[in-house]
């Protein structure tokens, strides 16, 4: 079974109604991103940070996977599919994809501030001041913030090294280190970039660019790779 590795970004979730990370002014839902997505912001005002992610969770509960999410899940019938996502939502899981690497954390999990190995599934949408881990330390969002390492990056690189097909869907390839993943795909692998605006990118062989929303572009890619490989 051929290996399909897919890197997804904000563009695939946008079609479900989740706002993209930053607007043109660099703000995220009216906040400077460093206020709500950095260790410094957390140290300065943990209440603001918790409230911000509580609102993100509450919004995420109102949306549903879209055709692109479901199409990627359907492709597991034909390929060994690994989803590497920059998104912190759980839409890939809800659509039925079974192998997902979250590079930037997961919105519906909390993490100890004293021991990062302590990560908890969330049954509710809120983390409040005073909510603590088993060691008595305040819980924080299980999110990789600016200035923090990306612990799942090595796992993602190893998956990409084995790809027969590597696809980039709904990302501008501007956020590193995730944007560098395409450079680890084998030279002879088929490569796809799907976005409403194709990002500037260095030359890669076997690269197919599909300038379209994720739902449309993913379906086009799906039909092509099933015809070619199955």
How would you sum up this structure, described in words?
With 230 residues, the protein is of the alpha/beta class. The protein is built from 8 helices and 11 strands. It has helices at residues 10-14, 33-36, 39-44, 46-60, 67-74, 91-95, 153-161, 214-229; strands at residues 3-8, 27-28, 31-32, 80-85, 100-102, 105-112, 119-121, 139-143, 165-169, 190-195, 207-211. Strands 5-4-1-9-10-11 form a 6-stranded parallel sheet, with helices on both faces. The protein has a 3-stranded antiparallel sheet with strand order 7-6-8, with helices on one face. Strand 4 (80-85), helix 6 and strand 5 form a beta-alpha-beta unit. Helix 5 (67-74) runs parallel beside helix 8. The mean pLDDT is 92.
Number of helices: 8
Compute the separation of the termini in Å.
Answer: 9 Å
Total count of strands: 11
Mean pLDDT rating: 92
Low-confidence stretches: none
How large is the radius of gyration?
18 Å
Net shape: elongated
Biggest β-sheet description: 6 strands, parallel
């Amino acid at each position: 079974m051929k290996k399909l590795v897919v890197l997804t970004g904000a563009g695939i979730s946008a079609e479900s109604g989740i706002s993209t990370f930053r607007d043109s002014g660099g703000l995220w839902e009216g906040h400077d991103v460093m206020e709500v997505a950095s260790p410094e912001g957390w140290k300065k005002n943990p209440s603001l940070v918790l409230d911000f992610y509580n609102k993100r969770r509450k919004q995420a509960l109102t949306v549903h996977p879209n055709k692109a999410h479901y199409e990627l899940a359907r492709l597991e019938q034909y390929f060994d599919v690994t989803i590497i996502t920059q998104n912190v939502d759980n839409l890939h899981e809800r659509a039925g994809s079974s192998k997902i690497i979250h590079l930037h954390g997961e919105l519906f999990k909390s993490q100890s501030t004293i021991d990062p190995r302590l990560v908890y599934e969330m049954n509710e949408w809120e983390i409040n001041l005073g909510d603590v881990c088993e060691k008595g330390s305040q819980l924080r969002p299980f999110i990789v913030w600016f200035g923090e390492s990306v612990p799942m990056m090595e796992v993602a690189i190893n998956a990409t090294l084995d790809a027969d097909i590597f696809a980039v869907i709904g990302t501008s390839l501007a956020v590193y280190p995730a944007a560098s993943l395409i450079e680890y795909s084998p030279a002879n692998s088929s490569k796809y970039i799907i976005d409403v605006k194709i990002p500037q990118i260095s030359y890669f062989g076997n690269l197919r660019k599909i300038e379209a929303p994720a739902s449309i572009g993913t379906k086009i890619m799906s039909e092509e790779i099933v015809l070619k490989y199955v």
